[in-house]
Structure formats: structure tokens, C-alpha cells
Amino acid sequence: MRNDLRDDVLFDEVRLRRALRLEAAELPPRFDLATIVAQAEPRRPASAFAALLSTAVAGVAAAGLAGLVVVALLTIAPAVASEVFDAAIQILARAAVPASAIVATAQQPGISVAATFALAVAVAYEYAQRRERVHAVSS
Amino acid sequence: MAASVALRLDLPMTLASPATFADGVREHQDEVYGVALRITGDRDAALDVTSATFLNAFRAFHRYDASRPLRHWLLRIATNEAISYVRKRGRELRRSVGVEQATTLADSNATPDAESVAREDRARIRAAVSRLPELYRVVIVLRYFNELSVDEIAHVTGRPASTVGVQLLRGRALLRGALENEQ
Lengths: 139, 183
Hints:
The complex is a heterodimer. Chain A is an all-alpha fold. Chain A has four helices and no strands. The N and C termini of chain A lie far apart (114 Å). Chain B is mostly helical. In chain B, helix 7 packs across helix 9. Chains A and B meet through helix 1 and helix 2 of A and helix 1, helix 2, helix 3, helix 6 and helix 7 of B.
């Protein structure tokens, strides 16, 4: 039993070693030490300065662009707002002309008395009509 | 070239003789690439990991303890790089390897001679290794690809030797189970 287990383990280990071994087709290309060194090298001062300069220029350009957008918005915003306000006032004025005539008419004393009387007549008429309908159904 | 490497790093010559790093790259690049390939299961990933390993080793060469084998130090960096890579790519990478291996296995035109059977067996084992949990995959690769002892694996991975022993047993049991389930 112990020997069987040992054989099994050995077989597994041999299979594993064979399977994991690198085959000829899997071998990597040669790694170039010069490339590694070049990658590891710190940046040269000239390129670092150029990078810093280009970053600064890009930053200034971005800030200028953002400022331009803000100024443009601030310039356009009052004009747009005043146009919208003008249009609203005009619409209001057009509506106010006929409305004022109606309001002036309604303010006359005779109109309110007549309107109250007309309302009372309408209520009485409706009441009479309902009573007639109820009477017709019940008889 | 090697001398300039040592000079650029401003290393004490006793610690890093001019040829050490260059020799290390030359001597161990296949092994470093192999451990990266077997852990990541992907050729391109292995190339990336190997490049990153040598780059990091070059940068940290002043911290290398020359009394210990360079091979172990490089394998330690490579293992850590490969683990980081696998964690980043994670499931996506393992899935693609599985598909590749499955395609290989599903090749019905393969002639059933001894060589193709052995190739198929190797592909199955590699696929099973690439699907092992990272914890076991690393020790299995270091043991059966790099031929390291349990103590050496413990040194490379920074795990206790007893843990490595248990992980090897458990990893092999998982592999055997996976291979038996396939049959």
C-alpha cells in the first residue's frame, strides 16, 4: 500500500516535470541587457526639461481656453437673458391690452348686479327643471 | 557594457562585480521566462513579466544580498511579478488559456501515435496547472519546473517551509483530481 502510494507520487512528479518543461518552440527571444538598462535609466535633464516645458505650455493653453469660455459665457449671458426678458414682456403687454378692457367693463356696478341676477335666474331655472324631471319619473 | 551597468548604478565592486547582472540575465532568462509562462499561462504575459523582472532587478540590484544565490532572488521577483500580473488580468487570462487548451484537445485530426498522446497529456497537465489556485500554482511551478527544494521555495515565496510542503501536497491532489475528472 505504502509502495503503491510512493509509485503514484513518483509517477505524478515525473509527469508534472515533463509537462512543465519548456519546449524548444516555447523558448523566449534573447533579452537585451542594453534595452533593460535604457529603460531603467533616469530621464536625461534635457528631456525632463522638455517634458516640463510642454506640460507648462499645455497647462497655460488649457487655462487660456477655459478663461476664454468663461468670458464668452459672461458676455453672451446678459444679451440672451435680456432678449428672453423682452420677449416675455411683449407677450404680457399684448395679453394685457384686451384683458384690461374686460377688467374695466367688469368693474362697472351694473355689470356685477346683472351678473348676480343672471346667476340667480339660472339657478332657479335649473332647480325647476330638476323638479319637473323628478315628478315625471315618479308619476 | 556590463562594466557601464555597474558604474551607472554606482555599486561597490565587491557586491556587484561588473559581469554579475549581465551574467544573471544570460544564465537565468529562460528559467525566469519559464516560471512566468507557467504561472501566467500566456506567452505575451510571460514576456512582459520577464522584462519587468529584469528591469526591477536592475533597479534594485544594490539591495541584492550577494551571499545568496542570484537565481533565487530573480525567481522571487519573477514570481511576485507573475502573481501581480495574474491578479490584474485574473479570470480573463485563465479563461483564454482554458479555451486555447480545449481547442488543442479537441483536435480530432491528431494521429494517435505515442508522441501526440504525450503532447496531449502535457497540454492537459499544463491546462490543469494554469487553472490551479494561485497559492498552489506558484509552489507547483517552482517545484516541478524550477526544481527547487521545499526550503528554497519557502525562501523564494517567503512562506514557511511547512506551509510550502502542505501546499505542494494539496496542489498535487487538486491536479490529480482535475485530471481524473477530465478522463
